[in-house]
């Protein structure tokens, strides 16, 4: 079945549902986009429904969050649609991060990158493969830079001074190629593992 990309209206609906729970630690649409990008570009895809507690925060356990089963189903179906939109962009299109301007009209990208970092934390060990790869680790630099820019612990922040607008613009424009590069890196590892498994299966079949 061909996936039909979410409409502008769908995205507004998704954004407003998420905004409703922001006081309970729910992700906003920009964070969600970064989070899903990490899950889809990373070592193995984790389904959106498995991540509801992380996405919704305390609203996940709150019976009153969704007035009915149907309302929850509609929300999950919007999440799946957004997930599939990102998957399609990574697999054959061009992925563009969903970045929103703040009240001052500036696009900062911190929410997106913090969402991506949350996604990495789910499969921390496997992401180590990327950190340990000298040729590919730099792909993470723009994301980590903005993902830790507002870290509560000042020692964890990558910048002492505030970023200039051109520096920020450069980091933001590096996100899309980085995500594609990360996706290709892990896809290649998965292909290699599959080939090795097939080879060892055919090897064991020959010896039986």
From TrEMBL:
SUPFAM superfamilies cross-referenced by the UniProt entry: YgfB-like
Protein name stated in the entry: YecA family protein
Upper classification of the organism: Bacteria, Pseudomonadati, Pseudomonadota, Betaproteobacteria, Neisseriales
């Amino acid at each position: 079945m061909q996936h039909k990309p979410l409409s502008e209206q769908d995205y507004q609906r998704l954004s407003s549902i998420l905004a409703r729970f922001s006081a309970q630690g729910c992700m906003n649409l920009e964070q969600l986009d970064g989070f899903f990008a990490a899950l889809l570009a990373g070592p193995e895809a984790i389904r959106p429904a498995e991540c509801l507690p992380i996405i919704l925060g305390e609203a996940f356990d709150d019976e009153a969050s969704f007035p009915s089963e149907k309302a929850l189903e509609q929300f999950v179906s919007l999440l799946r649609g957004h997930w599939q939109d990102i998957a399609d962009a990574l697999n054959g299109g061009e992925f563009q991060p969903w970045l929103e301007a703040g009240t001052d009209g500036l696009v900062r990208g911190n929410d997106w990158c913090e969402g991506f970092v949350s996604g990495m934390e789910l499969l921390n060990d496997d992401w180590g493969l990327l950190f340990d790869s000298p040729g590919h680790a730099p792909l993470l630099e723009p994301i980590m830079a903005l993902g830790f820019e507002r870290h509560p612990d000042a020692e964890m922040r990558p910048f002492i001074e505030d970023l200039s607008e051109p520096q920020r613009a450069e980091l933001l424009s590096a996100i899309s190629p980085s995500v594609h590069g990360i996706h290709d890196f892990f896809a290649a590892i998965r292909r290699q593992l599959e080939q090795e498994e097939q080879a060892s299966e055919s090897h064991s079949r020959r010896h039986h």
